[in-house]
Q: What sequence folds into this?
């Protein structure tokens, strides 16, 4: 029995979408190492590649019928590692334009959604990503990219152009969309758990 499940797990890990998710996890760790070293351009390039694999693995899984139970858990988990880790790493960088409370909102929402997803899927429900959740990911990625560009240019205190305003706008969009999508998931979970 365990041999069958081990084989199934190996097969799930060997499909392309899950390999891409695994690559995203490795790239996430590289981003977290590069930011405190001050290699902001390298961190930016690696982050963009990592974020791109999130879109590619989902597209591949749906197009070629390679959606797996492992992928349904592993993919959102790695997304959370990438985004939460990037926000936390940027908070630690002086003049990144990302405030500590913003990282708390992002991490708090991701923890909440993880708990809700677990409760609903254990009850047999489907808790797939909503459009608001996907849009939130876009704004969060934009905030990280803008912040890394700003840090490469010397940080908030050194800037007089538009870049600090772009970072501020992207960060606020990320926070507001994070809260909005989190509330949406709360209502969806409440509706499902009442049934």
A:
């Amino acid at each position: 029995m365990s041999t069958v499940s081990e084989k199934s797990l190996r097969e799930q890990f060997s499909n392309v979408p899950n390999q891409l998710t695994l690559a995203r996890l490795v790239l996430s760790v590289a981003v977290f190492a590069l930011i405190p070293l001050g290699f902001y351009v390298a961190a930016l390039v690696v982050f963009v590649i990592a974020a791109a694999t999130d879109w590619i693995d989902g597209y591949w899984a749906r197009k070629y019928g390679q959606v797996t139970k492992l992928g349904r858990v592993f993919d959102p988990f790695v997304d959370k590692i990438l985004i939460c880790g990037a926000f936390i790493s940027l908070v630690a960088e002086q003049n990144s334009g990302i405030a500590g409370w913003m990282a708390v909102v992002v991490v708090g929402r991701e923890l909440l959604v993880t708990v809700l997803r677990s409760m609903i899927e254990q009850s047999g429900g489907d808790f797939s990503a909503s459009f608001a959740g996907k849009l939130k990911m876009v704004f969060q990625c934009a905030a990280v990219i803008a912040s890394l560009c700003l840090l490469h240019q010397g940080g908030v205190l050194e800037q007089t152009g538009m870049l600090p305003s772009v970072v501020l706008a992207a960060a606020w969009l990320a926070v507001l969309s994070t809260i909005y999508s989190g509330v949406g998931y709360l209502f969806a979970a409440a509706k499902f758990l009442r049934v």
Observations:
- The CA atoms of residues 142 and 170 lie 6 Å apart.
